[in-house]
Amino acid sequence: xxxxxxxxxxxxxxxxxxxxxxxxxxxxxVVSGRNQERLDKAVSxxxxxxxNVAGYLCDxxxxxxxxxxxxxxxxxxxxxxIWVNNAGVAHPMTNVxxxxxxxxxxxxxxxxxxxxxxxRVAIKGMLEQGGGWIYNLEGFGxxxxxxxxxxxxxxxxxxxxxxxxxxxxxxxNTSVQVATLQPGMVITxxxxxxxxxxxxxxxxxxxxxxxxxxxxxxxxxxxxxxxTNEKNGAEIHFQPRWKLxxxxxxxxxxxxxxxx
Length: 260
Hints:
- By secondary structure, the protein is an alpha/beta fold.
- The chain has one domain (about 5-185, about 215-240): 3-Layer(aba) Sandwich (Rossmann fold), CATH 3.40.50.720.
- About 50% of the residues lie in helices and about 15% in strands.
- It has nine helices and seven strands.
- A seven-stranded parallel β-sheet has the order 3-2-1-4-5-6-7, with helices on both faces.
- Helix 3 runs parallel beside helix 4 (about 100-130) and helix 4 packs parallel to helix 5.
C-alpha cells in the first residue's frame, strides 16, 4: 500500500531527490517550497515522469503555512503517513559578527522554528488520523562538531538534533513516531553557497571529494530506510564514522569527483 509523504523544502537538493525517489517507489508525494516559480517548476518536472505528485506553497517559518500544507495533503491524498522536515537555510561561511542580521534570523527561523512548527502540526494531525511518522533532517553541528564561520548554522542543527531526540520521547506512548536523518555532506547549493568565491570552493574540493556525496548517491538509501523503518527514535545515518574513516584510508587509491 502506498504512503502519502509530505516533504518541506523539496523544490531542489535533497528534498527534491527524496520526492523523486519516493515517486519511483509508487508513493504519493506533496512537495513544497516558499518560491512559487521554483515550486511550479519542480512539480512539472516530477509530474512529467510520475503520477501522484502535488505541490503546495509553504514558508515553514510561518505556522499557518505548515497547517495549510498538512490540510492540503490530507484533502488531496486522504492522509499524511510521513512528514519530512527537510526545509533549511545555510549561510556563507562568515564570522557571526559579519553576518547580516536578516541572514541570521532567516537561518534560525527556517532551521529551528521550521522544524518545531512542522513537527507540531504533523503530530496533531497524525494523532487525529491515527498515526504517522515524522523525520527531521540533521546537518553539520548535529553531532557536536564545530567550525569557524558556521556558528549560526551549526547551532541551529545542534538544536534540531536535540529537538528530534526529545520529540521521540514525547511521542513514545502515542501512535506517532519520530526519527532523524543524517545524510552526511551532500553536494547541493546549500553547501557550495557557503563559499563566497569560486577560489574558496576550489580550495576545499579535494577534501569534499573524499567525504561528500552526490544527491543521487544518498537519496535512494534514505528513502528506502524511511519506508521500512519501524523504530521510534531511530537515528538514520547514511555515512557513519567508520565509513568516513574508510573513505580517508582508500582515498589514495579511489579517486572520486562529486562535482561532475
